[in-house]
Amino acid sequence: MDTELTDDEHLRALAALEAVVENNDDALAVLAAAPGERPLPALLAAYGQHTLHRILISAFGIDATTDYDKTGRLVAEINSDPMARIVFLLTDALHNQAELAGDDPATAKRIARSILLAINAFTDADNHDALTLLRALRNEILQVD
Fold first, then answer.
1. pLDDT for 60-111, tens place per residue?
2. Would the pTM of this model clear 0.85, i.e. be above it?
3. Inside any domain, residue 1
4. Which long-range contacts (CB under 8 A, 24 or more apart) does 112-116 make?
């Protein structure tokens, strides 16, 4: 499972998530039909894994200033936490679903909904809040040089 994402892939995944929040199937179909790009279901599964792992890391208090020993202890806590294990199971299931889907936009939409529900479980964001969060994540990518 390749979860490394380019900035362009981050932006494409965020656009797909926004399309799902806005129930814009036309925009989702355009994003799914991007020639030469990773199939949208696979991209969303990778993006979901990246984002949910990032949320877990943040929830457990790991950041760039955390020292090596404390990071090791916190990673061990993450790996033994039942909720974290559910996140790992979810991301694995998303990858399996994407692998079977090819470039099916309907499956991409289902995967995107699962990602949004998982993000919502951690943030209590409704659709309006989800759009605000997705736009903030997009702006974060655009500011990186």
1. 989 889 999 999 999 999 999 998 999 999 999 999 999 998 888 999 999 9
2. yes
3. no
4. 112/16, 112/17, 112/19, 112/20, 112/28, 112/44, 113/20, 114/48, 114/90, 115/17, 115/44, 115/47, 115/48, 115/51, 115/52, 116/17, 116/20, 116/21
How many independent structural domains does the chain possess? Answer: 1
* Residue 62 per-residue DSSP state: -
- Residues 70 and 111: their CA atoms lie apart, in Å, by 34
- 1: pLDDT strictly greater than 70: no
* Domain-located, residue 2: no
Domain containing 43 equals 7-143
